[in-house]
């Protein structure tokens, strides 16, 4: 391994890219684990936040068991447990922000628990999240087409 002088994410290390600066590796947009967790989350939400549905539990457990094979299969799962697993499983895959904006939930950096995003302050931010934090800026093209758009 090449010493790059600082910390980097090693989840999908590409030795060829480290040596040559070029890579033939594709960028994964959607993984099977993501699909399984989507299904488990959707079923838990449909059932009011907790589900005992065998298919949803199996989907959740397939992902969880790969990381923690000694752990027993649960008899029920909550939306928060599925979201927690999504945060861990899909870390550094450019999905966490969209999950946070969609669900208004975040993984607490210290406790590892799911918390409400609005009002939560990460260790590296100077202010807590607000509803305005979740807004995306107007695209430049739209600002040029309509000079009446205002920034808030």
Average pLDDT, rounded to a whole number, is 89
| Estimated radius of gyration | 19 Å
Spatially, the strands of the biggest sheet line up as: 1-2
Low-confidence stretches: none
Query: How big a fraction of the residues is strand?
Result: 5-15%
Number of helices: 6
- In whole angstroms, the N-to-C terminal distance is 47 Å
SSE series? HHEHEHHEEH
Number of strands: 4
Assign a percent range to the helix content. Answer: 25-40%
Largest sheet: 2 strands, antiparallel
The assigned structural class equals mainly alpha
- Outline type: globular
Could you give the topology of this structure?
Blueprint: H1 15-20, H2 32-46, E1 50-51, H3 54-67, E2 77-78, H4 79-89, H5 96-103, E3 105-107, E4 114-116, H6 140-145
Antiparallel strand pairs: 1-2, 3-4
Helix pairs in contact: 2-3, 2-4
Structure write-up:
- With 152 residues, this protein is mainly alpha-helical.
- Helix content is 39%, strand content 7%.
- The chain is built from 6 helices and 4 strands, in the order H-H-E-H-E-H-H-E-E-H.
- The protein has a two-stranded antiparallel sheet with strand order 1-2. Strands 3-4 form a two-stranded antiparallel sheet.
- It is globular and about 55 Å long.
- The mean pLDDT is 89.
């Amino acid at each position: 391994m090449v010493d790059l002088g600082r910390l980097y994410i090693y989840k999908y290390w590409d030795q060829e890219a480290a040596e040559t600066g070029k890579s033939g590796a594709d960028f994964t947009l959607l993984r099977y684990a993501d699909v399984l967790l989507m299904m488990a989350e959707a079923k838990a939400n449909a059932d009011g936040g907790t589900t005992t549905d065998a298919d949803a539990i199996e989907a959740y457990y397939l992902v969880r068991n790969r990381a923690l094979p000694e752990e027993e299969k649960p008899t029920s799962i909550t939306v928060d447990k599925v979201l927690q697993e999504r945060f861990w499983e899909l870390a550094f895959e450019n999905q966490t922000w969209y999950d946070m904006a969609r669900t208004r939930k975040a993984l607490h950096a210290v406790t590892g628990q799911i918390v409400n995003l609005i009002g939560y302050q990460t260790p590296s931010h100077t202010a807590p999240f607000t509803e305005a934090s979740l807004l995306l800026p107007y695209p430049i093209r739209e600002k040029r087409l309509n000079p009446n758009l205002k920034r808030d």
